[in-house]
Amino acid sequence: MDHSPIHNFTFNISYSEINRFDYWVHPDAGGISIGLSHQDGYKVEIVISSRDLDDYFPEDPELLIPGRIYINNNMIELNSPEQEWVMTILKKMLINQKLGHPKGLGVYTVDEVISFFTSQDALIFREKLMGK
Fold this sequence. Notes:
Layout: E1 18-25, E2 32-38, E3 43-48, E4 69-71, E5 74-75, H1 81-95, H2 105-117, H3 121-130
């Protein structure tokens, strides 16, 4: 897994250009994987990792860093334009009911993710993680 941040975010995909949405809520309901298909055929994978520190071992490069967003296997920086883009896509998926039943696990998880990343909680969590 590449934990270095994306430096050239080239997707700039607007919500209206996405013609397929797939998602999978991780078993602990703390993370979610989302597949987006662009109308021109290319795909974007967004993975939002769980905030569970119990199973995180920094020495294992295959593990996702808890509480972070990945786009096509590249970790993005907190409070970056890429994070803002992901939050916009997630909010529009909620509004357009692309996450299943309104009281379902997909909606619940995305609500939690949006709340976490649009507050200072993500930065506080990162500081806690760095102290681990």
